[in-house]
Amino acid sequence: MREEAQRIDGRLEGTLRVPDTDARAIVVIAHPLPTHGGEMRNPLVATIARACAERGWYALRFNFRSVGASAGTWTGGREEADDVGAAVAHARGIAPALPIGLVGYSFGALMALRWVSTGGHVDALVLVGLPLRSVTGRDNDLPAVPDGTFVVAAERDQFGTAAELRERLVRARIGEVSGADHFFVGQRDEMARLVTDELARTLG
Q1: pTM over 0.85
Q2: Residue whose C-alpha is closest to residue 19's, from 95, 90, 86, 89
Q3: Is the separation of the CB atoms in 109 and 191 below 8 Å?
């Protein structure tokens, strides 16, 4: 597999991982909180991208506004959902005939959810480490999670345990990684397997 640099909407930095075989789908992956070092080359995000390419899918990662070589100003999550929409539109331009999936991790999961809640559409949505609480301990304002959405949850997540997510998201499907915290250290392959198994179920 190889990677190709991308420029999204003329303003966002991205990278496309290209599988060794003819691609059967394209997956957009959104990274964690920029103010705490989150960017598209985050190890967990990179693990998901590699696992997607191994399944025969394009994997498009991008940096939110103000991160890396992406233009713009950080808005604290008020406008970053628009960056998700720009990345999805770019992915559709790359592979207009292929089904499209969207995976967000942590802050990226929250932004993906907000984009979907305002009318954004993809063929598959997976949320990893969806944060019920912010880094300051305040509750996040979560939009309604679409029925049947697959959420990969860490048993000991500092920002929302698997048990808390089950209680809060009663219409979601929860895939739990036992013993893991928010960063899935040592268990990223298991996390990526849950993500790609779900995408395969939906994207084919």
Answers
A1: yes
A2: 95
A3: no
Phi, psi (5° rounding) for residue 4? -125, 130
Residue 114 vs residues 146, 156, 168: alpha-carbon distances, Å: 11, 24, 17
Euclidean distance between the first and the last CA atom of the chain, given in angstroms as a whole number: 20
CATH number, domain at 26? 3.40.50.1820
Digitized pLDDT (tens) for each residue of the chain, 204 residues in all:
899 999 999 999 999 999 999 999 999 999 999 999 999 999 999 999 999 999 999 999 999 999 999 999 999 999 999 999 999 999 999 999 999 999 999 999 999 999 999 999 999 999 999 999 999 899 999 999 999 999 999 999 999 999 999 999 999 999 999 999 999 999 999 999 999 999 999 998
Domain coverage including residue 45: 2-203
Contact by Cβ (8 Å): 63, 40: yes
Count: domains in the chain: 1
- Rounded CA-CA distance 198/119 in Å is 22
Q: Where are the alpha helices (DSSP H) in the chain?
A: 43-54, 80-94, 107-117, 162-168, 188-203
Which of 117, 180, 118 has its CA nearest to residue 149?
A: 117
